[in-house]
Amino acid sequence: MRHFLIIIIFLSFQNGFTQNIIVDETYTAQQLVEDILLNGGCAAVTNVVVSGGNYTSGEKTYGYFNSNGSSFPMNEGVILSTGKIINAPGPNNSLLDDGGDINWPGDNDLNTALNLSNSFNATVLEFDFIPQGSKISFEFLLSSEQYLTNPSSNQCNFTDGFAFLLKEVGATNYQNLALVPGTTIPIKVNTVRGSGTICPPANEQYFDAFNGSNYPTNFNGQTKTLTAESNVIAGNQYHIKLVIADEGNHRYDSAIFLKGGSFNTNITLGDDRTVTGNNPVCNGELPYTLDTNTSGNHKWFLNGIELIGETNSTLTITSPQDGEYSVEIIIPGCTPNATDSITIEFAPDLVTNPTPFTECDGDSVQDGIHTFDLSLIIPEIYLNLPSNYQVELFESTTATVPLPLSYQNTTPNQQIIYARITNIPNCYSTINTPITLRVNTFSNIILDETKSICENTNIILTADNGFPSYSWNTTPIQNTQSITVNASGTYSVTITNALGCKKIKTFTVVDSQIATITTIIINDFEENNTATISYTGNSDYEFSLNEINYQNSNVFNNLSAGEYTVYVKDKNGCGIVSESFYILDYPKFFTPNGDGYNDSWQIKNLNKRGLENSKIYIFDRYGKLLKQINPQGEGWNGNFNNAQLPSEDYWFVLELSNGKTVKNHFSLKR
Length: 670
Prior knowledge:
By secondary structure, the chain is mainly beta. The termini are far apart.
């Protein structure tokens, strides 16, 4: 018994969960429109006609439906089908294709509206009405067996058609209101379909679901509840035709569910006019008039506060007041009251930044030509620019091509270009705001310098004079014209002129030091006696033999015999070092005449070079040895065996103690 009760409870729960819609075929066409579809008495309805399938058994293809407490998204309304509506209630466990073999035609107006030529099985509900308001709307959804969860590829393009056709009585052409929102695409199975099958999805944000077997209707799927709407003229007579038909053949029935009470005539104040919507009201449009185009007792409101005394069908706005403007109209015999609202924002008077956009000429040629990044300038042009306004810059007021964001001025130093709002043409398309681009220069020549610093000393680095601002790359930063440093390195100073432009001057500080003389290389006893000064030291040096006249070369030429002092000076002022040396040579002649001057021949100063142990031999021109003299003695007096030798050339051989031998001749003159 306990198991039996559990089964009964489960079946009762399942039956409640899968409750299905119910349909009623007994309603007349007039009742379907006036009692079910129409909301209140805001439209006078006449000439109601309905037509559909002519089944010999009497079943209808139109009628009333009720959700019967099920999950179907509409509580009640009117159903129009391409098959028998008695087969529309769920569960979804059979294929509906009821319209075969009864000679059930399509509809020519539907064919024209959807550009078809082969519709079948049309169900039509049509009537005339006179709206009391300026707008009509009603809610609907499309259900169809053609929403297959496992279609073959050749089934993806099959689709039934329906249209909600509206025209003024006496007009020729209909307007189709059953469109994908925001488009001109008619709503059909293949224009509103979800993903998950081999058929491509289309506008799936408006698709509700593919239905399983436990669904309140016997259709495979449906759209979401959508709204058909149109502006109308209050008091004019219109004709509306609601029609659905199979396309191509009678297979796979479809149905339109029209929500009960949703056929509503109301009013419309139009679309919002907002800054974010790029369509604010321009000040040039003032005064701005709102018009309901509807008779009745009016109440106007601004941000929910009634505007006392405003009771006409029009409201004229004379001053720019942003806000929500709304209206309520009491129309006799029409319930509820007609209402609508519109948000209005007024385009602001733009406040321009009066400051020129100034930059410094950034290259080495200070000619007042500079490349500006206009993307950085554009946000600074207007002080109260809304975020969605698009500003572009033009070279002249008549230019139509905007300047590139990387723009090089063509007029040196200063040029005027023009800003223009380009995405809200109604308000600002004719306004050209002049913008000044200014290029400052730093025309002074600033040269880098190299300085030397001596060991254990300081040096002062001084930037060029006459500028208001200096900034050194020291730690901490120093802002004086001069700084003192005690080490080699690279020091830079940013110099700013009176126009705010900058240049960088670099000081390269190198170590400098006094020289060290390592050796003096002497080449003497030659026609050109030389002395080469070898040294070490990290600097630039110059050389002198008298500490007055200096030369860059470390080689001294054409030196006579004698003692010298060489001076090596650091050009960077780190000091002077000196060292003495001797040049040796032999006398070219001597005059032994007893006058006490040049009476003997001798090679002097050999001892100054450590060559005092050298040997000197004197020969006549025939090679006869005449004398060997001591380098530290008096020399040779021109005698041989106490006899004076005649005036002529004589030869000598000097055998230096360092191994070098010098041979040459000299003259004896009497």
